[in-house]
Design a protein that fits this description.
By secondary structure, the chain is of the alpha/beta class. The protein has a single domain, classed as TIM Barrel (Alpha-Beta Barrel), CATH 3.20.20.370. The protein is built from eight helices and eleven strands. The strands form three sheets. Strands 3, 4, 5, 9, 10 and 11 form a six-stranded parallel beta sheet that branches. This is Polysaccharide deacetylase family protein. InterPro entries: Glyco_hydro/deAcase_b/a-brl, NODB_dom, Polysacc_deacetylase_ArnD. Pfam families: Polysacc_deac_1 (PF01522).
Length: 213
């Protein structure tokens, strides 16, 4: 049976850092890199002197390797978001999950020399097979406590209101670098964080763990 990541039922995920000293949050992006929207995300983060964490899909890294390398070059961190992001991922056995995660990690190691240890489950789904794979590979599962719902029908204002009403220091925010709407939300979010004197750092800095082995 599948469970949602925040329940920490099968798999212990890190969803926030309530004990953080300093006004820090972590903006995370799933499903990239995207040729149109990831460059916009990088540009906005640079403009507002913010850092993010990009949980990338292996097949997208394969398609856009230079863009993936640009994320790292800009000082952001990267994590494993499976290779295929298949709709059937929750039905994969442990062996297939391990293969997916290894394939993405090997790709990144060859491209950047980095051995990723941060993992974000596709669709936020966890189950015993995924839990076993994560344990076998010694990954850290990273969740969130502020979900933007930026991939739903909600408009820009509704998404922004949802995020800002829930964001406080130590929060991990979930966005996607895959749409124009998300990028519009990101810009307004970065303005909001600046006004509230909240700084976006990489997720491993927020959680005080390692991003790479």
């Amino acid at each position: 049976m599948d469970f949602f990541i925040q329940w920490n039922y099968h798999l212990q995920s890190l969803n926030s850092n309530k004990k953080i000293t300093g006004n820090k949050v972590a903006i995370t992006f799933d499903d990239g890199p995207h040729p149109e929207h990831t460059p916009k995300a990088l540009s906005l983060l640079k403009k507002y002197n913010a850092k993010g964490t990009f949980f990338c899909i292996g097949k997208n890294i394969e398609k856009y390797p230079e863009l993936f390398q640009e994320i790292i070059k800009e000082g952001h961190s990267v994590g494993n978001h499976t290779f295929s992001h298949s709709n059937a991922f929750g039905f994969f056995g442990t062996k297939k999950v391990v293969e997916e995660l290894k394939r993405t990690n090997n790709l990144v190691k060859n491209l950047s020399g980095l051995q990723m240890v941060l993992y974000r489950p596709a669709f936020g789904v966890t189950n015993p097979s995924i839990a076993r794979a994560v344990k076998e590979l010694k990954f850290r599962s990273i969740g969130w406590n502020v979900r933007s719902l930026d991939t739903t029908f909600r408009n820009e204002k509704q998404i922004l209101d949802r995020i800002t009403s829930r964001t406080e220091k130590g929060a991990i925010l979930l966005l996607h670098d895959t749409s124009e709407k998300s990028m519009a939300v990101l810009e307004r979010l970065l303005v909001f964080l600046e006004e509230r004197k909240l700084k976006s750092v990489t997720v491993h800095q927020l959680l005080q763990i390692k991003a790479y082995a």
